[in-house]
């Protein structure tokens, strides 16, 4: 009985130690993902070359199957499953890489 209780207490202490070190790291990673993904909540992205606004919502054409859809530019095509890796600035023509890829 005493041996079983010792094993249970040891397991609980080990579990608590693992969570003491893992939880702050997991929380930091989750916060970093939220900060990095906040641009997904915007309708435009800023061009790093000309500082103009590039719309992310609108009528788009898939570069693979040429299917036209209305919505978020970096969403997956419902016909072929392609996800665009970049968008061209409508002001200067520079390419802006997708943070999703």
Radius of gyration: 23 Å
Shape: elongated
Low-confidence stretches: none
Strand order of the largest sheet: 1-2
Helix share bin: 25-40%
What structural category arises from helix and sheet content? alpha+beta
Biggest sheet, open or closed, and with what strands and sense? 2 strands, antiparallel
> Termini separation (Å)?
55 Å
Number of structurally distinct domains: 2
Count of alpha and pi helical runs: 1
Return the average pLDDT rounded to an integer. Answer: 87
Order of helices and strands: HEEEEEE
Strand fraction equals 15-25%
List the helices and strands and how they pair.
Elements: H1 2-36, E1 44-46, E2 53-55, E3 57-61, E4 68-72, E5 86-88, E6 95-97
Antiparallel strand pairs: 1-2, 3-4, 5-6
Folded structure, characterized:
This protein is α+β, with helices and mostly antiparallel strands. The protein is built from 1 helix and 6 strands; from the N terminus they run αββββββ. It has one helix at 2-36, and strands at 44-46, 53-55, 57-61, 68-72, 86-88, 95-97. The longest helix is centred in the N-terminal third of the chain and has 35 residues, at 2-36.
């Amino acid at each position: 009985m005493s041996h079983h209780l010792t094993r249970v207490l040891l397991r609980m202490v080990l579990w608590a130690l693992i969570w003491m070190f893992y939880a702050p790291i997991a929380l930091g990673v989750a916060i970093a993902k939220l900060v990095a993904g906040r641009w997904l909540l915007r309708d435009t992205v800023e061009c790093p070359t000309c500082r103009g606004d590039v719309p992310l919502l609108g009528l788009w054409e898939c570069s693979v199957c040429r299917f036209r859809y209305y919505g978020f530019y970096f969403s997956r095509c419902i016909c072929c499953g392609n996800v665009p890796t970049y968008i061209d600035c409508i002001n200067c023509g520079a390419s802006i890489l997708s943070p999703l890829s």
